[in-house]
């Protein structure tokens, strides 16, 4: 069992969560640092002033789930948006959507998942090799708008080296009981001389999943997930670097639980909703209408992506490394309605997007080492149909950034600057085009004040530019039961953040404790103006906001076999108003738990219990969510057949079969979390 290598955030108290917290143990009593690819300077995890978690090796194999959000939901300060089984994004420190940047080996994932939580992330976690999470707004190389953090998923689709034995790869199979799900994946790299080729693929078939005891139904209707993904890539590899190209196609079909037509007649009158009469006769009409639709709507997603990646050492005088990342994505999905046994497309989403970045690492100058870079991106987005609540737009973004570091004795200092500009062209007779500019700066320091002890701090001032959806949305959005109204007068929001992290990475006792405070001026949020039952009229508005939190873990090695970890996290988020503070919606509740891990020869095991608290700090028109307890266990065995390594693993989640609701979810009452689940998997490497 390889370890989860997590490095704190620049903030002081990190009490992480479930199946992987902010501190993990290695085969000895020290954490071997891993290189964080998402750091502009390719730093080791122990050098970062920002909070970092890295899932790698055997650990990422066991943690991977069907969605990126569920894969990372056990990490410190991270929750999942949870929209059934097909769509789930990570929520970092209470922030989601465009405030959490998702990358594929440094290149932005250009899908539609930031537009709505029912849109899946066009990426397959089961084919990932390493997943990195940088918390806080200090990763300026990827955008000042990443106030929550950056998630970088590394894969093998573009080979970076020619296999020493000519061919290498892996095959993995897994199954689970909660959704009668099965999944299989393979990846293989082959080559000789200077050429390397790679192929990989995955197929998943999961039915509607079961929930914990005490709910009205045993399964969540429409929570199935079917996925097929394939990729082909090739690279030219030389002594000083590589250049490669890969093509990936992903096809998903997944249900949309909680999607109701009950509120189709609702529409705004000024700042109020008008939903007609709701007497007994009207309720009968609604029931009849639901029967006519006859089934849960579902999404059919088709994404084609091209990736160009390259690196070159000593490209020219004065520079030690050049790095290229570029991608083009042709993304589309149809939201399909079922009525009287006939399927018809209700809404069609299409996006053609490109992203490119070039980084140059300069040779040391006066003791300073740094990276300067340029980034550009373009997204052509349109929606057609019943719920086309955003007009067609073309968003163009450009940015220039600089990151520098300086080491002096036991101190390491870092600084970052970024300037970005954005133009949005809208195809509308009633709306006008908009342009925005933003500047961001970050300063950080790490003080190694004693052997294996460090104190990190980061101060940053970052700006996030409004998205097309926040500016121009206008219409019915049944997936989230909202009628949305954009605000074309939105300006850039400005965040002032401080992070402190105290950590110890070696010895029988290790810990990582972090605290953060983020003051955001002109915070863009969906303000609820009126509500009828579960349906809300929202308008994008700006008001100052505050995010304060704590996250961390403390681990004690009990003996040569057993270790015990205490972990948890907490975030408080609110708007500041003249008439008093107002809570922000869908903020994760606090979590705290204990985990016992064991290691004996080729066996690895862990058992944990944690408590997710009741969330009663709710926004207007939002309901409280009860707390729940979770009990999870895991067991794995690694061996070899001749020279071929293999691994078998078993996981048991929610062994108490608790009925649990994710407060972060728009559809938490229609789609509770999964009930008791037993998952088994086997992986073979060659």
TrEMBL record:
Residues 1-26 form the signal peptide. It comes from the Bacteria. One of its GO terms (cellular component) is cell outer membrane. Residues 48-150 form the TonB-dependent receptor plug domain. It is found in: Cell outer membrane. GO terms for molecular function: siderophore uptake transmembrane transporter activity. One of its GO terms (biological process) is siderophore transmembrane transport. Keywords: Cell outer membrane, Membrane, Receptor, Signal, TonB box, Transmembrane, Transmembrane beta strand, Transport. Residues 298-655 form the TonB-dependent receptor-like beta-barrel domain. It holds the Pfam family TonB_dep_Rec_b-barrel. It is a multi-pass membrane protein. Belongs to the TonB-dependent receptor family. PANTHER family: TONB-DEPENDENT OUTER MEMBRANE RECEPTOR, TONB-DEPENDENT RECEPTOR NMB0964-RELATED. This is TonB-dependent receptor. It comes from Thauera humireducens. The lineage of its organism: Bacteria, Pseudomonadati, Pseudomonadota, Betaproteobacteria, Rhodocyclales.
């Amino acid at each position: 069992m390889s370890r989860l290598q997590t490095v704190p955030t620049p903030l002081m108290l990190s009490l992480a969560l479930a199946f992987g917290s902010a501190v993990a143990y290695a085969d000895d009593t020290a954490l071997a640092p891993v290189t964080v690819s998402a750091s502009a300077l390719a730093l080791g995890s122990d050098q970062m002033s920002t909070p970092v978690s890295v899932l790698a090796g055997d650990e990422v194999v066991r943690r991977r789930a069907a969605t990126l959000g569920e894969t990372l939901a056990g990490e410190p300060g991270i929750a999942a948006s949870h929209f059934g089984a097909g769509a789930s994004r990570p929520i970092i420190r209470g922030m989601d959507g465009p405030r959490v940047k998702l990358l594929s080996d440094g290149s932005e994932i250009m899908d539609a998942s930031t537009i709505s939580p029912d849109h899946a992330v066009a990426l397959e976690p089961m084919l990932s090799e390493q997943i990195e999470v940088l918390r806080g707004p200090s990763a300026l190389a990827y955008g000042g708008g990443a106030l929550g953090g950056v998630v970088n998923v590394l894969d093998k689709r573009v080979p970076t080296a020619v296999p020493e034995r000519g061919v290498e790869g892996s095959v993995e199979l897994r199954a689970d009981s909660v959704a009668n799900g099965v999944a299989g994946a393979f990846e293989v790299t082959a080559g000789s001389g200077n050429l390397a080729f790679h192929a990989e693929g995955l197929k998943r078939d999961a039915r509607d999943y079961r929930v914990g005891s005490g709910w009205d139904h045993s399964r969540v209707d429409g929570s199935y997930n079917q996925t097929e993904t394939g990729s082909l890539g090739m690279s030219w590899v030389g002594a000083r670097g590589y250049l490669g190209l890969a093509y990936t196609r992903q096809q998903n079909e997944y249900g949309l639980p909680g999607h109701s037509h009950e509120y189709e007649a609702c529409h705004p009158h000024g700042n109020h909703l008008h939903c007609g009469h709701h007497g007994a006769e009207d309720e009968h009409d609604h029931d009849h209408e639901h029967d006519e639709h006859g089934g849960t709507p579902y999404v059919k997603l088709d994404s084609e992506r091209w990736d160009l990646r390259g690196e070159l050492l000593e490209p020219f005088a004065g520079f030690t490394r050049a790095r290229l990342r570029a991608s083009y994505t042709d993304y589309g999905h149809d939201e399909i309605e079922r009525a009287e046994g006939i399927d018809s497309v209700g809404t069609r989403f299409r996006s053609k997007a490109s992203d490119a970045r070039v980084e140059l690492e300069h040779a040391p100058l006066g003791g300073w080492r740094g990276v300067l870079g340029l980034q550009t991106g373009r997204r052509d987005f349109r929606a057609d149909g019943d719920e086309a609540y955003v007009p067609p737009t073309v968003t163009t973004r450009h940015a220039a950034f600089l990151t520098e570091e300086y080491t002096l004795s036991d101190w390491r200092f870092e600084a970052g600057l970024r300037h970005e500009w954005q133009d949005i062209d809208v195809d509308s007779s009633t709306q006008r085009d908009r342009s925005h500019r933003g500047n961001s700066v970050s300063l950080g320091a790490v003080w190694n004040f004693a052997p294996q002890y460090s104190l990190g701090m980061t101060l940053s001032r970052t700006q996030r530019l409004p998205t097309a959806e926040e500016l121009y949305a206008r219409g019915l959005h049944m997936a989230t039961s909202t009628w949305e109204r954009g605000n074309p007068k939105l300006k850039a929001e400005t965040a002032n953040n401080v992070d402190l992290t105290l950590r110890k990475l070696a010895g029988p006792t290790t810990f990582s404790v972090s605290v953060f405070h983020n003051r955001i001026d002109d915070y863009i949020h969906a303000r609820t103006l009126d509500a009828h039952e579960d349906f809300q009229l929202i308008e994008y508005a700006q008001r100052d906001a505050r995010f304060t939190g704590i996250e961390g873990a403390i681990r004690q090695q009990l003996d040569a076999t057993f270790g015990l970890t205490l972990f948890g996290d907490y975030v408080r988020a609110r708007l500041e108003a003249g008439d008093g503070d107002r809570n922000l919606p869908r903020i994760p509740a606090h979590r705290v738990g204990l985990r016992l891990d064991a290691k004996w020869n080729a066996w690895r095991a862990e058992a944990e219990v944690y408590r997710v608290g009741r969330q009663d700090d709710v926004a207007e028109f939002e309901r409280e969510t009860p707390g729940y307890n979770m009990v999870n266990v895991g067991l794995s065995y690694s061996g070899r057949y001749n020279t071929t390594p293999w691994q078998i693993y078993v996981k048991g989640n929610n062994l108490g079969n608790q009925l649990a609701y994710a407060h972060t979810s728009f559809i938490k009452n229609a789609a509770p979390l999964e009930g008791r689940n037993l998952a088994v998997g086997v992986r073979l490497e060659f």
